[in-house]
Amino acid sequence: MQQNYRAGFACFVGRPNAGKSTLTNAIVGQKIAITSAKPQTTRHTVRGVVHRTDAQLVLVDTPGLHRPRTLLGERLNDLVRSTWSEVDVIGLCLPADEEIGRGDRFISGEIAELKATLVAVVTKTDLVDRATLAKRLLAVQELGEFADIVPVSAVSGEQVGTLVDVMIGHLPASPQLYPDDMLTDEPEHVLMAELIREAALEGVRDELPHSIAVLVEEVLVEDSGLTKVYADIYVERSSQKAIVIGHQASRLKDVGTRARRAIEDLVGGRVYLDLHVRVAKDWQRDPKQLRRLGF
Ligand SMILES: Nc1nc2c(ncn2[C@@H]2O[C@H](COP(=O)(O)OP(=O)(O)OP(=O)(O)O)[C@@H](O)[C@H]2O)c(=O)[nH]1
Prior knowledge:
The chain is an alpha/beta fold. The chain has 2 domains: 6-169, P-loop containing nucleotide triphosphate hydrolases (Rossmann fold), CATH 3.40.50.300; 186-292, K homology (KH) domain (GMP Synthetase, Chain A, domain 3, 2-Layer Sandwich), CATH 3.30.300. The protein has helices at residues 20-28, 71-84, 102-111, 130-143, 160-169, 180-183, 187-201, 238-245, 250-267, 287-292, and strands at 6-13, 45-52, 55-61, 89-95, 117-123, 148-151, 213-221, 227-235, 271-279. The strands form 2 sheets. A 6-stranded mixed sheet has the order 2-3-1-4-5-6, sandwiched between helices. A hairpin with a 5-residue loop joins β7 and β8. The protein is elongated, with a radius of gyration of 20 Å. The two termini are 20 Å apart. One of its GO terms (biological process) is ribosomal small subunit assembly. One of its GO terms (molecular function) is small ribosomal subunit rRNA binding.
């Protein structure tokens, strides 16, 4: 293991419209944020990996936290908390152009007990003058215990690099989590794999919600502009393989069509998608396979 190497997971939380997606995109350099998977099956949806020679910062998505009114709401909140408990750094996003409100206090209270390092991120600083920003920073200080408070503008790019430095500073010493050939400068691979996984889960979510993983093996862009995507869908047992493929491969064809359309939206051009279903026995229990599959 390289000395002084740090790696770990981080996520952004905050009330709706706080600027989480825009900030994530600014950090991973990817304009398109796919709508997140249905919350029930969202575990870590990797949004992007920041590679540095001395560190790797993995940004994951979490579904939003709600005031629980139903059992489903409670379950969702449990899921959010379990995701939060697995990340090393949580960035609480608070828009500079709005007063701190009840929603912010609620979320801030919820994350206060976690083991993750909390960083307050004052977003959209380009929308306010210095006096307002100063006032907001003071208010944030009163809101909770934060390891750092970083003002940032995802739109102008101001302080985005600093925020990444700060977050990396709070990651544990760890070997690299993802191979750089898989993800470096290519968060698209991950997004494509997520889109394929979403399509493959459609209709069989109840049967195999956590048994499907997708690995994009290769992406080739031809001179004609056609993007060729070669991907494998992994299941844990051959019975699951039969479900995913369907009668006379009818289901797999549907999955392919839906995934291809979604990837076409992602890359903004024509896509050829080559899909194979493979059995990786008990991949969920095998750390090596898990890493290979992006978990
Ligand atoms: N001026 C400015 N606008 C921003 C900035 N960041 C986000 N916005 C805008 O704020 C709005 C909300 O941003 P999102 O990134 O969608 O917020 P979010 O927290 O992901 O929202 P939800 O998905 O609803 O939770 C969008 O209209 C963005 O364009 C910023 O740094 N500056």
